[in-house]
Design goal:
two-stranded antiparallel ribbon, 6% strand, 2 domains, 4-stranded mixed sheet, 2-methylcitrate dehydratase PrpD
Length: 462
Amino acid sequence: MPDKDSPTAVARIAEYAANLSFDQLSELSVTRARQVILDTLGTILGGYQTRLGKLAADYATTMYPGSDATIPADGRSSTVEGAAWATGVMGKFLGMDDSHRINGHVAAELVPVVLALGEHLKLNGKQVITALAAGYEVMDIIQPAVKNWQRERGLDHKGQAGTMAAAVTAAVAMGLDADGIGNALALAMDMACGTEQYVYDAGKCDTKDLLAGQAARSGIQAARMAAFGFQGPPGALDGPYGYFHAFGPGYDPSYLSRLGENKALEEISFKPHAGCRHVHATVDAVQEIMRQHQPHPDDVSAIDIRTYHMAITPDFRVNFHPTSVGQAGFSLPVTASVVLTRGSWYREDIDTYDTPEAQRLRSLVTVGLDEEGAKQDPNRHGAIVRITLKDGTELRGHVADAKGDPENMLTDAEFEKKFTTLVGNLLPRERVDALVAQIQRLETLENVGALVRLTRQDAVTA
């Protein structure tokens, strides 16, 4: 428990967020913020073109009728909460949203908040970047301490820490003072929810994606409630029954040691492939083998994958017999077999997980821990793949860091390629180019609402 005379964890975080300014952010943080907006908007526009994406837009306009904010791609309007909810669901569905070694997926909860509030409040680019940075920092403060406990209990970080980070993002975007931000954070703690049962029931439920939208919606609701005068528990984080006790091992003041460093945006990762982030190093290693040797699937007799601990636990990550596309997207054996037959790991590739050829190849897979890599740095996302051919030849692919991690970042061209691939034929090329150009100068935009409205299919670039 904190000293009764010391500021609570909520108060300290709120004071930090209230005093954060754009000028305090590093050039790299601003660059990453631009990339996060571009990357997430691409996943949103791609996600809209799916059954669940369109269902989310229909639900938001039906259940949250309003004219406050535009639902990207769809063009219809909703309340701020409704637009953020639909956008979060759309941005999560394809599984190509950003990632972080410790904090998991963050953008699908936060970017919808700044897009919806940015349009409604006519925020400029610097205000949007600052609010986004505040949310990432909060996630970086409150998530690491409970990560292992969440995993053990099957709790979902997007619905829990993501809700609180979204609340701070919304409160900063709304210009609330420290008291208001603190109450938004504290109220959001009691709105936080969600489990990861969806990974076992993948293909039978939609909650993986609904949780991201719910976090964005609840975060805005908490900030609006705080602005209206409602109060949350001061001990929401460090109290006897607060977040760190309820979802983790209890509170330690060291959890806040990074507060004010503003490093969270600098440390995020991006996903060049679909499916779970923890299969991506294996995708990269198999693709390296294919580039160098071009093995024919019929010639393969064995596939051995050695990777980091999180990529092979829990057991759904080593599922040899998935019964749905959703389950297949988490499976290392499926990943290696599909990439060998298709060359890539997009949603349409994962759809082929159960072809006879893919079934045969995954029966040849063995999976284990890369013990040498774990000794060097257990938090690095690397993989070693060895493919043995029928003639005894061994082909080896190795990546120390998955493509898109800070040490192996996507190039500008790769970001743009991903964006245009996900948008597909939804928008004309000149509109896609206009969106990219505006996001590349995000901090100079006077009103980000114009950016959101540019995603409408009936928009004009002039």
